[in-house]
Design brief:
heterodimer, A: 227 residues, alpha+beta, YmcC-like fold, twelve-stranded antiparallel beta sheet, 47% strand, globular, B: 713 residues, mainly beta, Porin, GMP Synthetase, Chain A, domain 3, 3 domains, 13-stranded antiparallel beta sheet, 32 strands
């Protein structure tokens, strides 16, 4: 009887490939989980990510759960959807987190950093672009992105960007409606081009945007749910 | 003469990255020898991308070659090859096929691009194939390759040895055939000697994936085809000097080749390449850190907080919990009115800067507002190693700035005094950490049995008694394996005449009874600023028991470290119980470690080895800042080549693969692979866990600054 218990424990250990309490040994099951976890689990058989009902439910729950500012974000390349809560501010920067500990940092509605998305945007200079976008004015500006490369060295990417003003439309989110001007930012790094779009209301707030993050992550779509 | 060679090599490699970077004329293609090049059996002047590591398997005419190639610098390539020749008769069709039906041969190549490609100038490389030992594939060459347009590459060169064995146009003296020593020594007397021939080839890149090749080979294959062309032929018939082929780039990593060779044979080749400089997930996919919490303005004035009863205990618990969520164990803490010092053991992050950044953010969220100065010390086995001191205001102000701004503001300390007075966190000692896991133990390269291994189950544990005191043990049970298989019939130059300090390995692998891998008590401690110490007592490793003491000098900002180790050990019983055999010896080394700062790291150990021989080990590694390492070492001691046995002296290649690179998220686990020449008794050292240098170095400025960008990751 006792022996079979030991046997069971042993079998369990072997099934997990290792067991013990030694820290840092990296239980393979844990590692696998880390490997497979996306920003938010994309569910459903298709590649469309969470169903609208699931998203709505998650949003409702988040809105009720706290009175912090909320946004909804979609990483297009991975079809992952997340509700982001602004968990901290540092001066003009706000850090928005998903429930599975991935964060996006924004300043004046422009993404300046990400953490935990893979190929993260480590820091950036977006002030000149933000000035144009929030003033709803056309113009030229430079932006700088910093990433880590395969050897963990900081690499800088500079882009020349042209901001143009589009028409005014109504942005409808789950919680509010706003009249907003569409601002388009077209950037060129010399070896890569990307386009960001921002819907800016009359207060100069970005209520919805589609912004390019990094070569691996591509674009993120962000819509404000509650300011 | 021989002593100076490693020094010259170290100097050469250390300088290499300073050389002018012209066009290195790189290719993703490999040839039948597994070296970079677009031809088939002939070399070219092409290089791989800097840092690329590749494995190639090729087969033709009864010969299979498996080659590991590393692009050491943009212009230097090193290769290690393992070839098997079916029914080969050594001595050019000698007295019958090799007894075990296949003959195995190991070889090393080196190539250096002496001229990069210019507008009109071809790239020129000098190469040595199979430059030491039996020299079955021995050949030297000077070769030029020029790209014409963007698709066609033309190669022409002059070869000696094998490459000068067909259609030679001249001769540079006579080429000796004897071995130097007992093999394994560079055959300097043969290099560029004897008949020489001119070889040539073309490669044409038809599309991104597809390429075509033709070459004129000057390898007569005298060894493989026997004494005469036809009667002695035992591997293949060489009917023509012309080879033709097609190459295909299947993916970024995989390159394939198919060839029609020497008018009679079909050859095939598969090459798999990876570059340690690129990572599957740049920056890693670890979850986000906690953001910095910024203090409200003017809040830092109330210095009276510390007087609140119980405040410190609550604070310590909060810090410990916050750090635990970030994979850091709080071992010690000391809080003053405006300053906090913590000692943490990092169990998750392979990049120390990342651990520092996570800890700093935890402190910013937990410490009372008046605490402005953070000192975060790194613990190695309970001993404080390096520390980083920063201002909390900088942590707040620079969270969204480039990481270099923070690096400019922090101060690195190696002074144990900075952490003096930290109170040991309750509940940290004593503590048992254990682990039960399967293991695989790979054997050394037996000439006739390339893969030997044992697999089983190992129970290991560390009992942390008090700061710096660790009782450590491991017991394993073998499930299956062939490490105890008797050696094959191949004699080579014999086993040598030294005491059997390592060559009894087979006897230690016999039987399936549980064995004690190690059981030691160790003390780690600081011996002053820049000084570190260790004493380990007990069953140190499977073959030796005894006492080992080490002292390391490593200033926090220095790229140089010096160390000394003294051991007194006795050989353990084959059954790896508690018994000892009748052999004991005092060994020890003086070591110098130097980080060249350009991606190369050198180590020199001088002293007495296990068989009582005196000598030195030189090791040189190319280090990538994500943890990858590729290096080589040589040990030469005062035993004669004859006394050492086959191989003449100990040497090997070693590769470290960080698991974090492979899985994309932080872990301190890594895999070490050592390809050693035959394990002999000369130049052998005792294995001890917990050697100081690596851990201490990782916590110091030169190493942390390389990957400081991870501070904010």
């Amino acid at each position: 009887m006792k022996l079979s218990h030991v046997g069971l424990a042993l079998a369990a250990c072997l099934a997990l490939a290792a067991c013990g309490n030694r820290p840092g040994q990296g239980n393979p099951v844990e590692l696998l989980r880390t490997l497979s976890s996306g920003m938010l689990k994309s569910s459903g058989p298709g590649s469309g990510g969470a169903t609208p009902e699931q998203v709505a439910a998650a949003i409702d729950q988040a809105l009720k759960g706290s009175d912090l500012p909320l946004s909804i974000a979609v990483i297009e390349a991975r079809s992952t959807t997340a509700v982001l809560t602004r968990i901290e501010t540092n001066g003009a920067y706000g850090t928005w987190a998903s429930s599975d500990r991935r964060t996006v940092t924004m300043r004046d509605g422009l993404v300046t950093a990400t953490r935990g998305l893979g190929n993260d945007l480590m820091s950036s200079q977006t002030g000149a672009v933000a000035a144009l976008v929030t003033a709803r004015e056309a113009g030229q500006a430079q932006r700088v992105h910093r990433y880590l490369d395969g050897e963990n060295h900081t690499v800088e990417m500079r882009a020349e960007c042209r901001v143009t003003r589009g028409g005014e439309t109504v942005v409808k989110s789950v919680r509010f409606e706003a009249r907003a001007v569409e601002m388009t930012e077209s950037c060129d790094t010399g070896s890569r081009r990307f386009v960001n779009t921002y819907m800016v209301d009359r207060h100069g707030d970005v209520v919805q945007s589609r912004q390019w993050l990094s070569p691996e992550s591509g674009h993120i779509f962000i819509q404000a749910l509650r300011k | 003469m021989r002593v100076s060679k490693p020094v010259v090599l170290v100097g050469l490699v250390a300088m290499a990255p300073m050389a002018v970077h012209g066009d290195n004329l790189t290719t993703k293609s490999k040839n039948m020898y597994g070296t970079p090049g677009g031809l088939i059996d002939m070399p070219s002047a092409e290089m791989s991308e800097d840092g690329e590591l590749s494995a190639t398997v090729s087969h033709f005419g009864g010969t299979t070659k498996t080659t590991l190639t590393f692009q050491v610098t943009p212009r230097l390539t090193g290769s290690f090859r393992y070839a098997s020749l079916r029914e080969y008769r050594p001595g050019r069709g000698g007295a019958g096929a090799y007894p075990n039906s296949s003959y195995y041969d190991r070889s090393f190549d080196l190539r250096y691009q002496i001229l990069t490609e210019g507008d009109y100038r071809p790239a020129v490389a000098v190469g040595l194939r199979d430059f030491m030992g039996t020299g079955l594939y021995g050949g030297e060459y000077v070769v030029a390759t020029k790209e014409i347009g963007s698709r066609l590459r033309v190669t022409g060169g002059v070869g000696w040895g094998r490459l000068g064995s067909f259609d030679s146009f001249g001769s540079n003296g006579t080429r000796p055939t004897g071995l130097i020593g007992s093999g394994g020594i560079p055959n300097t007397d043969r290099w560029f000697r004897g008949p020489m021939s001119g070889f040539a080839g073309l490669s044409y890149q038809a599309s991104e994936q597809l390429s075509f090749t033709a070459e004129y080979s000057t390898d007569a294959y005298l060894e493989e085809r026997g004494a005469g062309q036809d009667p002695g032929s035992n591997l293949f018939r060489r009917k023509s000097p012309w080879n033709f082929g097609v190459g295909y780039q299947l993916s970024d990593a995989v390159n394939l080749g198919a060839y029609y060779m020497y008018g009679s044979e079909v050859g095939v080749r598969v090459s798999v390449a990876l570059n340690p400089r690129t990572s599957p997930v740049p920056g890693g996919s670890d979850t986000a850190p906690l953001p910095v919490e910024v203090r409200p303005q003017f809040s830092a004035r109330d210095l009276g907080w510390a007087a609140t009863p119980g405040a410190r205990d609550t604070l310590r618990d909060e810090v410990a919990q916050g750090l635990a969520r970030e994979g850091l164990i709080l071992e010690g803490m000391r809080v003053e009115a405006d300053r906090v010092r913590i000692l943490v053991r990092n169990i998750r992050w392979d990049i120390e800067a990342q651990a520092m950044g996570r800890a700093a953010r935890v402190l910013s969220r937990v410490m009372p507002d008046p605490v402005e100065h953070f000192t975060i010390g790194q613990s190695y086995q309970g001993m404080p190693a390096g520390s980083v001191t920063m201002r909390r205001s900088d942590v707040e102000a620079l969270e969204n700035a480039p990481a270099a701004a923070m690096l400019d503001r922090v101060r690195f300390g190696g002074d144990a005094g900075a952490l003096a007075g930290t109170e040991v966190v309750p509940g940290i000692y004593p503590k048992l950490e254990w682990n039960l896991a399967p293991y695989v133990k790979l054997g050394v390269f037996d000439p006739d049995s390339p893969v030997k291994a044992d697999a089983g189950l190992r129970l290991s544990g560390d009992y942390r008694i008090a700061p710096g005191w660790v009782l450590s043990g491991a017991v394993s049970v073998k499930a299956a394996g062939n490490l105890d298989a008797p050696p094959s019939g191949r004699t080579g130059a014999g086993p040598g005449t030294l005491p059997k300090v390592r060559s009894n390995a087979r006897f230690y692998a016999m039987g399936n009874d549980p064995r004690l891998d190690h059981l030691t008590v160790a003390k780690y401690g600081r011996l002053g600023e820049d000084w570190y110490g260790r004493v380990t007592l007990g069953y140190l490793e499977p073959m030796y028991a005894g006492i080992s003491g080490e002292v390391l000098w490593k200033p926090v900002g220095s790229r140089l470290a010096l160390g000394a180790e003294v051991n007194y050990v006795a050989q353990r019983d084959f059954n790896q119980g508690f018994g000892l055999r009748n052999y004991d010896i005092a060994t020890g080394h003086l070591s110098a470690y130097y980080d060249f700062g350009n991606g190369f790291h050198g180590q020199l150990d001088m002293g007495r080895y296990l068989a009582g021989d005196w000598g030195a080990t030189v090791a040189l590694d190319r280090e990538f800042d994500n943890g990858w390492r590729v290096g080589a070492y040589v040990t030469k001691t005062n035993v004669s080549a004859a006394a050492f046995g086959e191989g003449s002296f100990d040497k090997g290649i070693r590769i470290t693969v960080p698991m974090s690179w492979a899985i994309g998220s932080a872990t301190r686990r890594k895999n070490d692979l050592v390809i050693q020449s035959l394990t002999r008794d000369g130049g052998a050292r005792v294995e001890v866990d917990g050697r100081l240098y690596e851990a201490v170095r990782d916590s110091h400025r030169p190493q942390m600054a390389k990957t400081w960008g991870k501070f904010w990751r």
